[in-house]
């Protein structure tokens, strides 16, 4: 292996160590600190781990994890589309903003879990209710960030579009949305964590499947190690989704990270 | 032909109004290169935006080939000073140049590509189409902005202090590029600057503007040869004479120079 190859490998190793270092330490501490635990509610980690494979069979992944994930994705996609759509509208028109602002502030102040019983009245206790709850919670960060992003479109960039006759849908696609992109993605990232929380909460109320439902079931039947495995599954799901999100973000906002890198390096933009 | 007829611009604020331009009146013949020079903050950019149809004048009018300019229109293109904000960082260089051509009817994808590639080659950036603007130096980015304007094929090219943010050497190169494009393409160019040397070096005619509220102090014909270069032209006694005259006019040391010359 060449010297450069070794250095690259070392750098990669270093980066990997940074990422997995703290989690590894925490798991180790948990493992040994709980090893001798005789408490019924806090079983040793090795018991939780050995239970894991028995509980989360492919069958259960299909009947409980998959429905949860589908509801989450459904609500999230709905909120994303509605949030960006309304955000572009409110960000573009001052009058629309003035009219909508008080109502938005009111709705935004309502914690979404409170709405679960209310939405149950309208949407029943099926998947619709859960999707609506998730969508309602995810909508706000997307909306508010999109509004800010759209309002912050650079004046010179906008005058360039006007001067060259770039209008309407083309202006939206080539100027407004890409320019607001970093803000929109920030909103979508916040929305993702809110979505996961609401997915679990909505399943704890009235459900017959889902990760949240499973955790509550185990808890009620005093299957404590099994309950803990459910929480581990939720944590893992969160990690996986956030990694996926980062992959998408790096693709969509590749230009943004490049631009920021260029500015950091040489105060870019100067000859 | 571009006519600016008694243009006036007053910014109406809350409780007070600011008169940026009092009365500006001049004409650009087809294929002429005219420089507007004036002190900083003298309403040059305001004037250019009114000409481009981006701002509505409070009084007076702008006519392009006899028809009034009431909004942005195909015959006019601008090169802005802030290339970093005028080029879209999310589009590659080639796409930036193509953007204004996308809604041109009767222009196929291939023609669009060819035009953009041609324009980039003209400004010496034939290889840069796939790069992002922020991967290029400032001078190169401004070349891209010029290429974008060229590909649009305007009758009148408006340039708003385009080289104020680049270093001296790059600036000299870009000035020569503008001269070359003007002689090759026969475009009408209105070039705004606060740099007196630049105005005299580039222009066939220099309009000297006053402080705000702006009026035209004087029009000076530049009797320098068409072929200009940074070494000999700048050493030409005529160049020195002209720049001194513009400077005096801007500084106000010869308030009635116009009267004396007659």
Description:
- The complex is a heterodimer of chains A (271) and B (262).
- By secondary structure, chain A is mainly alpha-helical.
- Chain A has helices spanning 3-33, 45-55, 58-92, 94-109, 115-123, 127-151, 155-163, 168-205, 211-220, 224-252, 254-266.
- Chain A has a domain at 70-253: MetI-like fold, CATH 1.10.3720.10.
- In chain A, helix 8 (168-205) packs parallel to helix 9.
- The radius of gyration of chain A is 23 Å and the shape is flat.
- Chain B is of the alpha/beta class.
- Chain B folds into two domains: 2-75 and 154-261, P-loop containing nucleotide triphosphate hydrolases (Rossmann fold, 3-Layer(aba) Sandwich), CATH 3.40.50.300; 84-153, no CATH class.
- At the A-B interface, helix 7, helix 8 and helix 11 of A face strand 6, helix 2 and helix 5 of B.
Biggest interface, residues from each chain: A-B, 28 and 36 residues
- Percent of residues of chain A in helical segments? over 70%
Secondary structure class of chain A reads mainly alpha
- Report the β-strand fraction of chain B as a percent range: 15-25%
Oligomer kind:
heterodimer
What is the element string of chain B, with H for helices and E for strands?
Answer: EEEHEEEHHHHEHEHEEHHH
Keywords:
heterodimer; A: 271 residues; mainly alpha; MetI-like fold; 83% helix; flat; B: 262 residues; alpha/beta; Rossmann fold; 10-stranded mixed beta sheet; 10 helices; 10 strands; globular; disordered C terminus; transport (chain B); ATP-binding (chain B); ABC_transporter-like_ATP-bd (chain B); ABC transporter ATP-binding protein (chain B)
Secondary structure: elements and pairs:
The complex is a heterodimer of chains A (271) and B (262).
Chain A: H1 3-33, H2 45-55, H3 58-92, H4 94-109, H5 115-123, H6 127-151, H7 155-163, H8 168-205, H9 211-220, H10 224-252, H11 254-266
Chain B: E1 2-12, E2 17-28, E3 33-37, H1 44-52, E4 59-64, E5 67-68, E6 76-79, H2 83-86, H3 93-98, H4 109-122, H5 138-151, E7 156-160, H6 168-185, E8 188-193, H7 196-202, E9 205-209, E10 214-221, H8 230-235, H9 237-251, H10 257-261
Parallel strand pairs in B: 2-10, 3-8, 3-9, 6-7, 7-8
Antiparallel strand pairs in B: 1-2, 1-4, 4-5, 9-10
Protein name (chain B): ABC transporter ATP-binding protein
Organism (chain B): Streptacidiphilus cavernicola
Keywords (chain B): ATP-binding, Nucleotide-binding, Transport
């Amino acid at each position: 292996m060449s010297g450069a190859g070794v250095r690259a490998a070392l750098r990669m190793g270093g980066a990997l160590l940074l990422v997995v270092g703290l989690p590894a330490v925490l798991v180790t501490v948990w493992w040994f600190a709980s090893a001798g635990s005789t408490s019924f509610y806090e079983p040793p980690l090795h018991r939780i781990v050995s239970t894991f494979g028995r509980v989360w069979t492919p069958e259960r992944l299909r009947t409980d994890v998959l429905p949860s994930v589908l509801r989450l994705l459904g609500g999230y996609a709905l909120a994303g589309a509605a949030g960006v759509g309304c955000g572009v509208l409110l960000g573009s028109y001052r009058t629309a903003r003035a009219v909508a602002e008080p109502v938005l502030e009111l709705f935004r102040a309502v914690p979404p879990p409170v709405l679960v019983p209310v939405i149950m009245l309208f949407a029943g206790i099926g998947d619709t209710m859960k999707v609506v709850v998730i969508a309602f919670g995810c909508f706000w960060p997307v909306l508010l960030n999109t509004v800010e992003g759209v309002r912050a479109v650079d004046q010179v960039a906008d005058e360039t579009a006007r001067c060259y006759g770039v209008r309407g849908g083309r202006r939206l696609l080539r100027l407004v949305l890409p320019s607001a992109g970093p803000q929109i993605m920030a909103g979508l990232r916040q929305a993702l964590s809110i979505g996961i929380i609401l997915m679990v909460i909505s399943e704890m109320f009235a459900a017959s499947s889902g990760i949240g439902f499973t955790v509550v079931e185990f808890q009620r039947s005093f299957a404590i190690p099994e309950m803990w495995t459910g929480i581990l599954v939720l944590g893992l799901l969160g990690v996986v989704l956030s990694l996926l999100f980062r992959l998408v973000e790096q693709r969509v906002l590749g230009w943004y990270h490049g631009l920021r890198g260029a500015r950091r390096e040489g105060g870019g933009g100067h000859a | 032909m571009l006519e600016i007829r008694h243009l006036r611009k007053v910014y109406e604020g809350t409780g007070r109004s600011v008169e940026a331009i009092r009365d500006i009146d001049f004409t650009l013949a087809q294929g002429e290169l005219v420089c507007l020079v004036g002190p900083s903050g003298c309403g040059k950019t305001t004037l250019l935006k009114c000409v481009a149809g981006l701002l509505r004048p409070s009084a007076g009018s702008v006519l392009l080939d006899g028809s009034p300019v009431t909004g942005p229109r195909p015959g006019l293109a601008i090169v802005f000073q802030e290339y970093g904000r005028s080029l879209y960082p999310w589009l590659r260089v080639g796409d930036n140049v193509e953007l204004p051509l996308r809604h041109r009817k009767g222009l196929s994808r291939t023609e669009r590509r060819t035009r953009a590639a041609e324009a980039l080659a003209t400004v010496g950036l034939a290889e840069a189409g796939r790069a992002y603007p922020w991967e290029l130096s400032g001078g190169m980015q401004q070349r891209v902005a010029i290429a974008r304007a060229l590909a649009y094929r305007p009758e009148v090219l408006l340039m708003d202090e385009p080289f104020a943010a680049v270093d001296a050497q790059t600036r000299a190169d870009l000035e020569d590029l503008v001269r070359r494009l003007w002689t090759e393409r026969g475009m009408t160019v209105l070039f705004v600057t606060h740099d007196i040397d630049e105005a005299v070096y580039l222009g066939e005619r220099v309009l000297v503007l006053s402080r705000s509220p702006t009026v035209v102090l004087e029009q000076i014909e530049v009797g320098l040869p068409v072929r200009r270069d940074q070494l000999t032209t700048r050493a030409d006694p005529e160049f020195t004479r002209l720049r001194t005259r513009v400077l005096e006019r801007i500084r106000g040391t010869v308030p009635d120079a116009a009267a004396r010359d007659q």
